[in-house]
């Protein structure tokens, strides 16, 4: 049996071929809260044959149908590019083989119930359509058609699709942008991070053709904020989430260096700091958080930084090269900055109140292992103390004085002591804010005010994974999902959020991956070798596994994420039952069969 793979246009894109007599896409009707609105799909000509250019087509035999069992994936080479071949429930599927987010090989990911989860950062893709179903990342995968002839598998695909390995979903455009009042918009998005951008894109993907305005205090278009501490010398254009042309093409307006000072929810008006006012119909608040600053003497002097923008990160790298750096706070940001600067600076010192980094998040044992890795890379820790004074010489930082009495030489100081939600401008708005300043939303990302939604780091929302407990999850992946759910419910879809938190941190070329929500964990079950930095840590509360972290054990975190996403419970006794890593044993199938009654199939590579 041969399997052939051809690029297939998804249903939403195929509708573009239903042309009106004037050669343009026929106008469709979209109802928003009962109001009929017309919209056009993006008007690019689409040929009925996706392979209208024979020179752009490649076809190759890749395997025999019996070469793949159900539930298996294989990366296949077509000569000018690769595809991911999948067999599930007796059917073959094929699509791009790299995750569009950071290029992870999806063949090393997790296949479960019609979707593939990325082994690195947890993004999920539907194997039938290639559409992205969970984040991070913005693009979907190209999907290729599979045909079987004479028990062989063939792939026929566009060379361009094989090379790009990504697909932007169909989007609508604004019908008559020129007719709008500049001080009025249908959708106003305050904040241009992941949540805001995904909200805007989702609205367009769902056919929304009215005006969308995003505003941000930043001077740049939306960018990959996690890279500010992981790749500090990146320039804004290198980490942009979308090019400028994208926003022009899909009529998503972005107002940069614009700060909202107040919101009048009764009149549906946002008031900007410069006095400009904008009316809205739907509002998304995705303002993120504001870094905490030091409260000691000298905190305002030159060369003391909170990493908030690409310029901040670039400036720190330039000033720190061959100089003395002090980092205050062993947070994710603080630790990532320390790791990045360790090889560039003359010295890196890290000051922290706790006695172990990441203790509250990863637990003491994992924290100590990470601390040892940093010490082996010339980072000096000063634990269980804090800064009492910053001393200057000729207006520039010279020394950091600790409450312990220690004085550290410092040319640069980076502060990473946490953040607070950027919601101060909402205090008199009537929008429900909790005691910590977080915006309270429901499962549809709606606030207590009709038509007002909130998303990202500034919200608390019901997490299904923890019995709908209201939590704040300031993760990049979660911000993406918040934005999508908010957009769908602006369009009255009634969609509730149901996703597993997923994050990662990168230090010295190694990554810790994490899934779940371990807040309040009471025990940690560790398998593997912490000294070798090859381990899996299961975080438990009572008898239930609530989160997992790993280093050098891909794709275990993605496997656990899929189990939790399916609503299944992993018991503490289940993970304690394995004093070895069953996914690495040579007789994995035997292990699976032996423990099948314990429902441990999710851990094994075979039989699951």
Commentary on this structure:
This protein is α+β, with helices and mostly antiparallel strands. It has 4 domains: 57-164, Rieske Iron-sulfur Protein, CATH 2.102.10; 170-292 and 419-501, 3-Layer(bba) Sandwich (FAD/NAD(P)-binding domain), CATH 3.50.50.60; 304-417, FAD/NAD(P)-binding domain (3-Layer(bba) Sandwich), CATH 3.50.50.60; 502-577, FAD/NAD-linked reductase, C-terminal dimerisation domain (Enolase-like, domain 1), CATH 3.30.390.30. The relative contact order is 0.10.
Low-confidence stretches: 1-49, 580-600, 604-608
CATH superfamily of the largest domain: FAD/NAD(P)-binding domain
Task: Predict the CATH topology of the largest domain.
Answer: FAD/NAD(P)-binding domain
The CATH class of the largest domain: Alpha Beta
Q: Judging by the overall fold, what is the CATH architecture of the largest domain?
A: 3-Layer(bba) Sandwich
Number of strands: 40
First-last Cα distance:
26 Å
H/I helix tally: 13
The percent of residues in helical segments reads 10-25%
Number of self-contained structural domains: 4
Describe the biggest sheet? 7 strands, antiparallel
Q: What class do helices, strands and sheet pairing give?
A: alpha+beta
Overall mean confidence score, pLDDT: 87
Output the radius of gyration: 26 Å
Identify the overall geometry. globular
Strand residues, percent: 25-35%
Subcellular location: Mitochondrion
InterPro entries: FAD-oxidoreductase/Apoptosis, FAD/NAD-bd_sf, FAD/NAD-binding_dom, FAD/NAD-linked_Rdtase_dimer_sf, Reductase_C, Rieske_2Fe-2S, Rieske_2Fe-2S_sf
Keywords: 2Fe-2S, Apoptosis, Electron transport, FAD, Flavoprotein, Iron, Iron-sulfur, Metal-binding, Mitochondrion, Oxidoreductase, Transport
GO molecular function, one term: oxidoreductase activity, acting on NAD(P)H
